[in-house]
């Protein structure tokens, strides 16, 4: 093997590594924004939605006074 095969262009490697770091930051920001804005698809628990739709019944322990 010759020495020319082992030569690495430092400026190109530095540029490539810097680009990878920036892409990683962008992907992290994209994830954070999607979570903050609710853009992710949320999984629903089966049978969990009915709890929000039902109205609670009011149970009175004491009878109402007469004349009301």
Give the gist of this structure.
The protein is an all-alpha fold. 47% of the residues lie in helices and 0% in strands. It is rod-shaped.
What report would you give on this structure?
- The chain is mostly helical and 68 residues long.
- It has a domain at 8-53.
- Helix content is 47%, strand content 0%.
- The chain contains 2 helices and no strands.
- The protein has helices at residues 10-37, 50-53.
- The N and C termini lie far apart (102 Å).
- The model has no long low-confidence stretch (mean pLDDT 78).
Radius of gyration: 31 Å
- Sheet having the most strands: none
| DSSP strand tally | 0
Assembly level = single chain
Portion of residues within helices: 40-55%
What is the percentage of strand-forming residues?
under 5%
Helix and strand content put the structural class at mainly alpha
- pLDDT averaged over residues: 78
Q: Which residues form runs of ≥5 with pLDDT under 50? A: none
Helix-strand topology string: HH
Number of helices: 2
Give me the secondary-structure topology.
Elements: H1 10-37, H2 50-53
Task: Output the keywords.
0% strand; 47% helix; rod-shaped; mainly alpha; 68 residues
């Amino acid at each position: 093997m010759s020495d020319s095969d082992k030569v690495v262009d430092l400026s190109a490697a530095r540029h490539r590594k810097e680009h990878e770091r920036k892409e990683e930051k962008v992907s992290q920001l994209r994830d954070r924004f999607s979570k903050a804005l609710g853009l992710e698809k949320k999984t629903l628990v089966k049978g969990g939605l009915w709890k929000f739709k039902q109205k609670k019944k009011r149970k009175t322990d004491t009878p109402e006074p007469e004349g009301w």
